[in-house]
Design a protein that fits this description.
48% strand; globular; two-stranded antiparallel sheet; 10 Kd Chaperonin, Protein Cpn10, Chain O; 6-stranded antiparallel β-sheet; mainly beta; 8 strands
Length: 85
């Protein structure tokens, strides 16, 4: 699977945080956090500054899902990435 143009294929990394009480706050219940975390699997030929295996943060409402080899990946545009670890 290879991304094209300015698209990036990512694998989401679940965002689990514990609050002060010890409860686990998942991505679905974390309404204050606008960004999700993911690992890049493939970058398009027009994308600069990003490469496979980079850990990124991106707008959690961005992109759409695609199933490849029975695994769910997400396709987002490069401009939706806000930072790289």
């Amino acid at each position: 699977m290879k991304a094209v143009n300015n698209y990036i294929v990512i694998e989401k990394i679940p965002n689990e945080n514990k609050n002060i009480s010890g409860f686990i706050v998942t991505e679905d219940t974390d309404v204050d956090n606008r960004y999700a975390k993911g690992k890049i699997k493939s970058v398009g030929n027009l994308v600069e500054g990003l490469k496979a295996d980079n850990i990124i943060y991106y707008d959690k409402h961005a992109g759409h899902g695609i199933v490849w080899d029975n695994k769910l990946y997400y396709v987002i545009r490069a401009h939706e990435v806000v930072l790289v670890e």
